[in-house]
Design brief:
By secondary structure, the protein is α/β, with parallel strands linked by helices. It has eight helices and eleven strands. The longest helix has 19 residues, at 109-127. The chain is globular and about 55 Å long.
Length: 231
């Protein structure tokens, strides 16, 4: 059964190009020109992935609002932001709101399709029976792949697909430094170094929101990151 991708883009030419490129890869594609149109459709039926532009019609940040709404409705749904806006503020804002990836519109179609494929691989890994063993416990951290759940000191931590697998990659080998390339490979990411850094910052913020003393993810400057078990 074909995967369903929703493309929310207000520029007709870009919208049509994306639809055609994704359809050629075997995806079932629905397109929407506005936030309201997309929300009405997704209230009835969620896609398997959403590709969202930031500026939608007369809403300069409509894509951000849609991302926030969709993330609340479907915590594990893969979301990719696609925008002409390439400032660090916009990228970080998109990731903070729950996007799994952020791509600028000057990206080539083959590269975009690679990002879509990688994002689906991360989502699929959650449902793979071969991956669903006993929960991983690292000190106060508990990761349950079968249920796609993360808890810290018994409190649930809401993670997106990308955040979950990046944390899983870090916690798999406590104390070992994982450089950005290793994290991308182990978490099935196809992003740049800056985006990896943004993901790590977002992970920390989510844990710090429930434990102000959280310090289990350590930056090893010039090398990468590592997960520490302190108790």
């Amino acid at each position: 059964m074909a995967r369903r991708i929703a493309v929310i883009e207000d520029e007709p030419a870009i919208r049509d190009n994306l639809r055609d490129a994704l359809a050629r890869q075997g995806f079932e594609v629905s397109t929407f020109a506005s936030r309201n149109e997309a929300q009405q459709a997704m209230q009835i039926r969620l896609p398997d992935m959403a590709i969202i532009d930031i500026g939608l019609g007369d809403e300069p940040d409509g894509g951000f609002e849609l991302c926030r709404w969709l993330r609340e409705k479907a915590p594990a749904l893969p979301i990719l932001m696609l925008s002409a806006r390439d400032s660090e503020i916009d990228i970080v804002s998109g990731l903070r709101l729950g996007a799994d990836d952020y791509v600028t519109k000057n990206v080539s179609l083959p590269h975009l399709l690679a990002r879509v494929t990688a994002l689906f691989r991360r989502a699929d890994a959650v449902a793979q029976p071969s991956q669903q063993g006993e929960p991983m416990i690292r000190g106060p951290l508990r990761l349950d792949v079968a249920r796609f759940e993360a808890t810290w000191r018994g409190q649930p931590v809401a993670l997106t697909v990308t955040e979950f697998w990046m944390l899983h990659a870090l916690a798999m080998h406590p104390g070992h430094v994982r450089d950005r390339e290793a994290l991308m490979r182990e978490a099935n990411l196809v992003v740049d170094d800056q985006t990896v850094t943004s993901y790590v910052k977002r992970l920390r913020r989510k844990f710090e929101a429930i434990d102000k003393d959280f310090d289990a993810i350590e930056t090893v400057y010039g090398l990468g990151y590592r997960f520490l078990v302190r108790e």
